[in-house]
Amino acid sequence: MAGAELAGLTRWRFRDITVFGVNGEATLTGFVSTFREFLLDPTPRVLWDMRECSLSSIAHGKFRWLISQLMRSDLQKRPCGRSAFLCPEDADYDMARVLIAYAEANDYGIELAVFRDIDEARRWLFDDPPNDRSG
Question: CATH 3.30.750.24: does it fit domain 8-127?
Answer without folding.
Answer: yes
